[in-house]
Prior knowledge:
By secondary structure, the protein is an all-alpha fold. Helix content is about 80%, strand content about 0%. It contains twelve helices and no strands. The chain is globular and about 55 Å long. It starts with a helix and ends in a 6-residue tail after the last helix.
Amino acid sequence: MNNLTIVFIGIALVLVGGSEFIRRRSLDNLLKKIYKAAYQDHDEQAFYLYINSPQAKMVMSDSSRNIIKLNYYIATDNDEKVMQIIERLRKKRMDRKSLKSFYSAAIGYCGEHRKAITGELLNEMKSNFQDSKEIEDQMLLLDAQMIYDIYICHDTTKIQGLKKLVEATPDDNAKSIYLYRLAILYKANNDFNSALKALNQAKEYSTDPNAIMKIQRILNQNLEGL
């Protein structure tokens, strides 16, 4: 290999590295704008402007943009749009990272709102990840199974395990989610006082305004909708 070839290879590597750096920086800036429009400013027009922009289409895959839309529709309780995106993504080929994001969001939503297809989604997720040795994949599968057992089966034998998770979890929002799930099982077990207590604790630990409003609405309705 002569010196001229080495120089050309060096220039090419620098250009590729520089191009990737610019892409990542552009993506980070765009994601911040999308998040601010959707969850801080609650500006739906700006959210659509950013997520459907030519820049977004250049730096993000179609699946990634649809998953961002899915989470936005979940946060804004737009059931029709949620189900449209879920059905669209179920037919798409996605990389493993996108698959994990999709099934986590879809199973979490359908467990509460569209129970009939939750089992189908869980089986699809298992077919993609059950042979994986990655700890993260196994944890996601366990959580998806937990959602099914709690929201669909109302398996009250999970109460003790959930109580241990609440105690062991350092993250306040995760603790809030586990307490909410505990409340579901307490209600299924006709232990309404414990359900109310768990819900109030879930509200205290949550930092998500939408989750707090949802919990307060259930409390105001004396556990109706739980």
